[in-house]
TrEMBL record:
PANTHER family: 3-OXOACYL-(ACYL-CARRIER-PROTEIN) REDUCTASE (PTHR42879), 3-OXOACYL-[ACYL-CARRIER-PROTEIN] REDUCTASE FABG (PTHR42879:SF2). Gene3D superfamilies: NAD(P)-binding Rossmann-like Domain (3.40.50.720). Keywords: Oxidoreductase. PROSITE patterns: ADH_SHORT. It holds the Pfam family adh_short_C2. InterPro entries: 3-OHbutyrate_DH, NAD(P)-bd_dom_sf, Sc_DH/Rdtase_CS, SDR, SDR_fam. Its EC number is 1.1.1.30. This is 3-hydroxybutyrate dehydrogenase. The keyword Transmembrane does not apply. Belongs to the short-chain dehydrogenases/reductases (SDR) family. It comes from Qipengyuania spongiae.
Length: 250
């Protein structure tokens, strides 16, 4: 049902973004990929999804502007690229703070401001941002990430109100822990910050948060993104949709 619609999915060379790109492609959308990675793997993804790819670093405004100009008219904007860093606040590297705010929050403002003119003209658009359970609640040692994701929740609500009368919806999806490289890579730092073993971090920090005791699968987020693009979701606007096994219900 997305034939003729073009979707830009940021951070789609891995994890959640790739699953969302696959799900939207499955419904007929034309896909623009973004993200870093091995050149031949990215070429393989472009072939699989009949997609184009931008290697723009979204911490850099001028690279975002170039990506948006080259991508053309975007009907579905999936702001998904993100990164994490785990450290006590007094040791939190200042450059990591700046990088996380730039990528996890500011980039979504820039892509939205550049995508909205076409969406308004078309009278239809979807802006979906991968927020996090950390847009609703906090965990220690994640100051930049939690601040950025709370910011995404606020930006989403504002976009929803501004654009509602133009047939454009803005929502965010807030997963709990999804088994992707982003989660796997934070295990060593969490072991250090909390003095725990790898298994203890998985059981006592990660899955302890999720009452279902299961990691969310990237494909589940792809399916929700497809729903949010559908006609049936035309009145889902400004929502922060949790997919966290019940974590934030506590
Ligand atoms: P991931 O590390 O598997 O993928 C991140 C993607 O972003 C990759 O494609 C990477 O190349 C790209 N990327 C990284 N830095 C970039 C930059 N500067 N410019 C452009 N692209 C860049 O991570 P993931 O787990 O799939 O996370 C995707 C999103 O989901 C993030 O916003 C993350 O905060 C959010 N999220 C993840 C989880 C989880 O448990 N994995 C939970 C909640 C929210």
């Amino acid at each position: 049902f997305l034939d003729g619609k073009r979707a830009l999915v940021t951070g789609s060379t891995s994890g959640i973004g790739l699953a969302v790109a696959r799900a939207l492609h499955g419904e007929g959308a034309e896909i623009v990929l973004n993200g870093f990675g091995d050149e031949s793997e990215i070429a393989g993804l472009c072939e699989e999804l009949s997609a184009t790819h931008s290697g723009a670093d979204l911490t850099d405004v001028s690279q975002i502007e170039t990506m948006m100009a080259e991508a053309g008219e975007i009907d579905i904007l999936i702001n998904n690229a993100g990164m994490q860093h785990v450290a006590p606040v007094e040791e939190f590297p200042v450059e990591k703070w700046d990088q996380i705010i730039a990528l996890n929050l500011t980039a979504a403002f820039h892509t939205a401001r550049l995508a909205v003119p076409h969406m308004k003209q078309a009278g239809w658009g979807r802006i979906i941002t991968t927020a996090s359970a950390h847009s609703l609640t906090a965990s220690p040692f994640k100051s930049a990430y939690v601040a950025a994701k709370h910011g995404i929740a606020g930006l989403t609500k504002t976009l929803a109100l501004e654009l509602a009368e133009h047939g454009i919806t803005a929502n965010c999806i807030s997963p709990g822990y999804v088994w992707t490289p982003l989660v796997e890579n934070q295990i060593p730092d969490t072991m250090k910050a909390r003095g725990m073993s790898r298994d203890e971090v998985i059981d006592k920090v990660l899955l302890a948060k999720q009452p279902t005791k299961k990691f969310v699968q990237p494909e589940e987020i792809g399916a929700l993104a497809v729903f949010l693009c559908s006609q049936a979701a035309q009145n889902v606007n400004g929502a922060n949709w949790s997919m966290d096994g019940g974590w934030t219900a506590e």
